[in-house]
Structure formats: structure tokens, C-alpha cells
Amino acid sequence: MSVSGLMSHLWSTLLESLRLFINTLRFLIGYSAFLITGTTPKFATRALAHLSSFSNGRLNDLLSWFISMRHPPDPVEDVTGTLGNLKKEDVKEIVSEIREKGYYVFDKKLSPEMCDKLLNFALTTPCTPMKMNHTDKLDAFGYVPEAPRIYDRDNPVSVRYDFAAQDLMQNSVVQNLITDPTFLILAENYLRSKPITDINTMWWSNASRGTEGSSSAGQFYHADLDRIRFFKFFVYLSDVDHNNGPHCFVEGSHKKKPRPLLRGSKRISDDEMKQHYSTDKLVELTGKRGTIVAVDNIGFHKGKALLEGERLILQILYENSSFGSSYIPIEINEHFQKNFTDYIQKHPRLATTYRWKT
Asked: What is the set of domains in the chain, with CATH numbers?
């Protein structure tokens, strides 16, 4: 190696070491603030993403172990709910498969009645379109929220429309799903701790952008690194095939990632992903309306750009810690069902990030 090359390498190493030191300091300060106030400074969320990537997830594993010691899961038992009658053995088998692959597609679907109720909500409740612009390419975010409006299925003006978290949480079907025994037992056993529900979302996607993916809409591969550990359920509320936006997941990438792809939450192109993973590991999760998928989105994933039609999807999120959350807290008000409020009063950790209306 030439002298100039050696100096460049040493300088790069020094800068990376300095960045690591600064982010470690930011994380420690931010986590201390979180333990005292229950809120996370934004700089600490960014530090978590950097350290999670740098350690290839080992920091998340270590922190999750401590959380499990403080909030251990209850013993596995038989439960009945949206996902059917799950025996202890079923729970262990499903969790084991998710630990191995990073995802699981359930045979049991959300009932047509519940799908209809959520579709009606999605067609009658204002949602926010993303204003797309030329900067919304790989690694460049062009998300500019516009005024909320009713989604016009015939004349979409954006590739994605998001529903407000507060509006969504006031929906009785969503409340029932969050406290569903089968959802909770799988989340609790996968996280190895009592779960917390945080930002639950629903959005429309469509083919108005053509085959060009949108970074802001999550249509390039990336990893979610703004929490210590996630567990998500995706519910397809429209038929999803290979042409209208399947959730794509890189099998096994939740456990360990190739060093060249450790870039925090930055987007990664399909071509680069294929340089490190075989085609059979790049899974497209398709399914009819009502299909339910569980994923660990610390693994690489994306929503495939729609080639035709539209997609309506609901995301139910559980986590083992609310560290990293910077969303406006959900207000529990008169729109919440008694069975939901009764449940979280008995299990307050589940709604750690929520606030009661004063």
C-alpha cells in the first residue's frame, strides 16, 4: 500500500472510531434520559441505528436480554383468537420459524367482516398523501405531507396515503387486534418480554408512480433500526400478488447481515442485494385479502413498487422497549372500547406510550 493510501486508510479508521465514540456517548445519554423521562431524544434514536448496524445487531441482542430479565414473558399456554386455536406447541413452532426465517405467513385469515369494516374506514376517513418529487430516489427522501383527504381510488395523486395513528387507534377492529390473545402471545414469546404497542399504521399504495420505486414509501430494501426489537403483523386488506405490492423480506437477514450492507437505515437497491443473497432468499409475501404475516423488520425488507392496482395494508406493531419512539402519544379517549381500556389497565406496559385524555 502506498504512503498516501495508508494515510487515507488511517484517516478513515480514525473518523469511524470517532463516530463510534460519539454515537456511543449519545446513546448512553439518550438512554439515561429515556429511563428518567420516558421519552427518547432524536439524537439517541439515530445513535441506536448506527450502533445496531455497527454491531450487526449484537447490541440489540444484549439490550433485549436485559429487558427480558426485567419484564419476562408469562409461561406459554393455549390461546384462541384471530389466528385460531393455538396450542402451546403451535406457538413454539411459529416463533421458532420466525426466529429462523424472519417471517411467517399464517393459514388463518382475518375474517371478511373485519376486512370490510377496515376497508370502509379506509374509504371514509381522511388520509395524508405523500407529495412526490424528483428527489425521492434511493437514499433521498422526498416525503412532503399534504393536507389529509379521502382517498380517491380512481384518481390517486400519490403513490402512498397514510392514515393518522390517532384515527386508526380509535377504530374498534384495530383495538381488538392489538389486544388479541393470539397476537399477544406470539409477540411476547418472540420478544421474550412483555410487549409494548406503539405506532400502528395503515396506508394505501397504488401504481401511480409506475415501476419506479419510492424511498419515502419504503419501496427500496432497508432495515428498521429505530427500536431495540420489533415484532410486526401485516394484514393485507386487499388481494396482494407479485404485481401489486407484496411485502418483500430477505430471509435470515434479521440474524446477521453482510458487512458491506451495514449502513444503518439507508436504502439498498435490488441489484446490490442480489450480490449478497441468493434469489431464493429474496421472498415476496403474497396473499389474498385477510392474509396475516408476522415479520421481524430488523431484517432487510421493502414494499415492492406496485405495477398495477392498489394495496391496502394494516400494520400492528409490538416492541420490547419504547426507547427510540418519537411519535405523538396516542390519546385514550371516549372512542376507545371498554374492553380495550379494561385490558390496558390490567396490563399497563402494553400501552406504555399512550396517554389518557385529561
From this structure: 77-356 (2.60.120.620)
